[in-house]
Amino acid sequence: MDNRKTSQWYISWVMFFVTTMFAGTAFVGMASHGFVSSLFHLICSLIYIYGWQAIARRSPELMPKYFLAASALRLMAAATVLLVFCVVNRGDIETIKWFAIVFIVFYLVILAFDAVFFAKVSNNKKVTK
């Protein structure tokens, strides 16, 4: 599978996960929490895959460093979003608690998907331009 098809497949699956999780949060009455989480993870995933495309094309030997750096940056961005939400809603502990739960579940689902997806892609030793 070439990089373009791999990227399209990745984006399709991320859209599926984000949409499904957002629908789940809307179903239980937490649509605003789900929207923020969905938007964050969609943006991060798009940046992640476009960065992956660039590294795979130019310097495939740097892929392990890219995975580590991108994961660390995503973790720091997620922590920042959680912190900002806590500061903005500091008077409402219940809202903070439910947002944190929703956001962390989204984070873990996307993290697990990324791990499985890129493990499978990495097993395909042939990286095409």
Keywords:
mainly alpha, 129 residues, 85% helix
Give a brief description.
The protein is mainly α and 129 residues long. The protein contains four helices and no strands.
Overall shape: it is elongated
Assembly category: single chain
Helix/strand/pairing class, anyone?
mainly alpha
What Rg, in angstroms, do the CA atoms define?
A: 16 Å
Distance between the termini: 11 Å
- What string, H for helix and E for strand, traces the elements in order? HHHH
Please give the domain count: 1
Number of helical regions: 4
Q: How many beta-strand runs?
A: 0
**Largest sheet: number of strands, sense, barrel closure:** none
Q: Which spans have pLDDT < 50 for at least 5 consecutive residues?
A: none
> What's the average pLDDT?
87
**Helical percentage:** over 70%
Strand fraction equals under 5%
Structural write-up:
The protein is an all-alpha fold. The chain has one domain. It is 85% helix and 0% strand. It is built from 4 helices and no strands. α1 runs antiparallel to α4 and α2 packs antiparallel against α3. The chain is elongated, with a radius of gyration of 16 Å. It starts with a helix and ends in a 6-residue tail after the last helix. The mean pLDDT is 87.
